[in-house]
Amino acid sequence: VIDAPADRVWALVRDFNALPKWHPAIAQSTIEGGLPSDQVGCVRRFTLRSDGGLLREQLLALSDLDRTCTYNILISPMPVANYVATLRFTPITAGDKTFAEWWAEFDVTSGPEQATTSDIGDNVFVVGFASINKLVSGK
User: Fold this and answer.
1) How far apart are CA 45 and CA 58, in angstroms?
2) In this predicted model, what pLDDT tens digit does every residue of 22-46 receive, in sequence order?
3) Please, what's the b/e burial string for 46-84 (b: 16 or more CB within 10 A of its CB; e: otherwise)?
4) Closest by alpha carbon to 41, among 19, 59, 56?
């Protein structure tokens, strides 16, 4: 649960190139080919703050009505393949908060599956939502 209205959260996250604004693990990001950052099919290229690792992800779907976006990973230093993830932000009317969801399906290509799954859950999803909450709620 994010302590801010869903529209405020969505305004931050819907920009597919805004990762460095809200996720502390991301150093910089650009959209390839000069495409708009909300155009389905655009590719973001970004680097990790920790080691400069390069990722490329493609926006597969974006819905302002449902406050959802779906993307897949094209290139990643993580040992994953067939990675498709979705973020969804649903209004909680009592208290004007947001129910945030972020899930992914993927295959682990090397190493222990549980370690990779935990790493993504803890260091991508949980850290990302904590940062969003801090940014939009001021807490």
Assistant:
1) 9
2) 999 999 999 999 999 999 999 999 9
3) bbbeeeeeebebbbeebeeeebbbbbbbeebebbbeebe
4) 59
